[in-house]
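Chain A, query sequence.
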Amino acid sequence: MRHGRRTLRRVIRLAAVGGLLCGGLMVSHAVAGETAPDGGRPAVGTSAPPTDATADLIARLGTTRTAGSWIGADGRPVVAVTDDAAAAEVRRAGARAEVKRHSMRDLRSATRSLESAPRVPGTAWVMDYASNQVTVYADRTVSSGDWSRMTQVARQAGDFVRMRRTGGAFTTRINGAVPIFNGTGRCSVGFNVTDGRDNFLLTAGHCGPVGTPWFRDTGGGSGRLGTTVARSFPGDDFSLVRYDDRGAFDGSNAVDIGQGRSVPVVGAADPVVGQEVFRSGSTTGLRSGRVTALNATVNYREGTVTGLIATTVCAEPGDSGGPLLAQGLALGVTSGGNGDCAEGGMTFFQPMTKALTALGVRVIDGRLAADRGTVAAPSAPPATPSPAAAGGGAGTGADGGTGAGFVPPAQAVAPPGGVARRAVTGIVDTAELVPGLGVIAVSLLVLLALRRLLTERADRDHLRAHYSQHWG
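Chain A, predicted structure.
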């Protein structure tokens, strides 16, 4: 009988502890996880870039012993190396190593050869780290003669350069995510930024030259938002629109993900190959994909843009200029691409950190507006645009120079500590949080009741033993 009661108490205790663990996991998932939007789309920002230690190791090994890095299917960082000794160092750093034939120096040399050849609109190239090759894409607008010439250039660049035909056409996709109008067309808001005195919106550079006015509606008669004060296109693809209407900016900085929900933007960062990323646009809504390459080059008809992020995220006309993000961090703004969201395609993005540095601005922390309410634009005199970013010549802004009156981009990267803290808004799943807290509460009550029961039982046993010893 006594053995049976002891077993029952043990079972009850284990069940209560199990309940605590279960409830804790439910609460942890509800707070730390970001629920998937309806329609089976994945949650915003579920993969992380390699650690700083891995990045430092790649920099120390150099471009002759490494050939890029990416996130593997298992979520671990993978580093391409050119010798076994480098592979051993990578493994000791906690990453997976893959030995490749061609180094990063070889890949970059091939892309320089492609860039020096006569320009062919409708072509693009990327460094494919996983396959250890450079892939040159040619869309349907490239003639057979241009294809033959590009193929010859590719052969001369190296035997690891591959030519590939792709459907559709590489185009800059004017129109976009939260729409803004300039009287002749429309683009989209990317992110809200500031130089410490004035507030701006960052969008694609191909949307319009310096001096372009922007409005809330198609007519342009009312709802004046602002004016383009800095631009870089071609070469880069970003522009800065200063808010003229103080009431047009409410201090917020969030990305709409549909169904009345939004994700606050907390900073900016550079992506990594293999990372899961997201963008939101007015045509196709929230879409996800992965980064396939960095430093991509695209030869649009309007000009060549370099240093782009290549992704598998689909996009269509009406999505251009929209934000690319992961885990609340701004990664880029939509530049262009090919294909659509029915059959897929490639989409390229202007890296956010490069634009911030060139423009001398920083991302507005979207959590601040939620904490203190709306914030009006500062009343200080407008700043003079950076000479590096004004005018829009090819390659302008690439040197990262800033003009007089601009505050250095102190928040142009994620907040200190490696991974930015995500705001609770939009990522707490109350459907799991409340039941999880309930399970924890019930389990605690069971443990407390069991402890009290055991304490009373022990007291009775002690008294019984005491009586039997002293009273015979």
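The longest strand covers residues 285-300. The two ends are 25 Å apart (CA to CA).
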